[in-house]
Design goal:
- With 269 residues, this protein is of the alpha/beta class.
- The mean pLDDT is 96.
Length: 269
């Protein structure tokens, strides 16, 4: 495993983790924005791939830079990450907000992709997404510890969380308590709510997998079904349970299924 820093045109320093060897696989986190979200899955995937993960700008060990934050900017940050890592083409796996970033990346930089996986994401915010994330933004400013606790409670299936309470404790301990941390989350929620993937569809025609989980309480599975139906030739996969953060709670099934899809659909770069 090695750590590098990617510098963006507006001066953000992005903390990047690279592990394993083989075809490149770029993992793009959701709203939480940290590379550590992928730690359980990345350790497994590194047996067959060069796995690249990173802290989003203004999150974790990455700095913010000066540009206004948007999904488009976050997609362009992925180019800075790939260039710093010396990666030409990659499979991109984007989860939740990372899936919105992935759709934008495919539209802007499709020549850099060998495959695209859109996980627990959506095409355009409907009223459910708008109401939920607006409420979360208000809670963030009023009670950041409550915001962090609710994100974990809604993010995992109840049975799994009941057996893994330290995950909730860690989420609360890492709550965005400082004004700069809260501002970073709030502007990312605003970027999320402004995203509309409908004009982006059809720009990328390479191998695409849209996956979700039936019991997702944050980005419901019907939104992945809608997205998959709108992308020509996309394959759809729905796990039966695991909650929104199923790459953590159902790591074995997540990794096994992903590896099988890549083997069957993505030619070596």
């Amino acid at each position: 495993m090695r750590q590098i820093t990617a510098r963006t045109p507006d001066g953000a320093d992005i903390a990047v983790t690279i592990e394993g060897q083989g075809p490149a696989l770029l993992l793009v986190t959701g709203l939480g924005g940290t590379a550590r979200f992928w730690a359980p899955a990345a350790a497994r995937l590194a047996a067959t791939h060069t796995v690249i993960s990173f802290d989003h700008r203004a999150v974790g060990a990455s700095t913010r830079g000066s540009a206004p934050v948007s999904v488009g900017l976050l997609a362009d940050d992925c180019i800075a990450v790939l260039d710093a890592a010396g990666i030409g083409r990659t499979i991109l796996l984007g989860h939740s907000l990372g899936g919105a970033i992935g759709q934008t990346f495919a539209h802007r930089h499709g020549e850099r992709l060998t495959g695209l996986v859109l996980s627990a994401t959506w095409m355009t915010p409907n009223r459910f997404i708008a109401e939920l994330f607006d409420a979360r933004r208000k809670l963030l400013l009023a009670d950041p510890a409550g915001y962090a606790a609710l994100a974990a409670i809604m993010g995992y299936s109840p049975g799994w969380l009941a057996a893994n309470w330290p995950v909730l404790d860690a989420a609360v301990a890492a709550a965005p308590l400082s004004p700069p941390q809260q501002a970073a989350v709030a502007e990312r929620i605003a970027a999320l709510l402004a995203f509309d993937g409908r004009p982006l569809l059809g720009a990328y025609d390479g191998p695409t997998l849209v996956q979700g989980v039936s019991d997702d309480m944050i980005v419901p599975a019907f939104l992945q079904q809608e997205l998959a139906a709108a992308i020509p030739h996309a394959e759809a996969l729905e796990f039966p349970d695991g909650g929104h953060l199923f790459p953590v709670s159902r790591t074995e099934a997540f990794v096994t299924t992903l590896a099988a899809w890549i083997y069957a659909n993505v030619p070596p770069a």
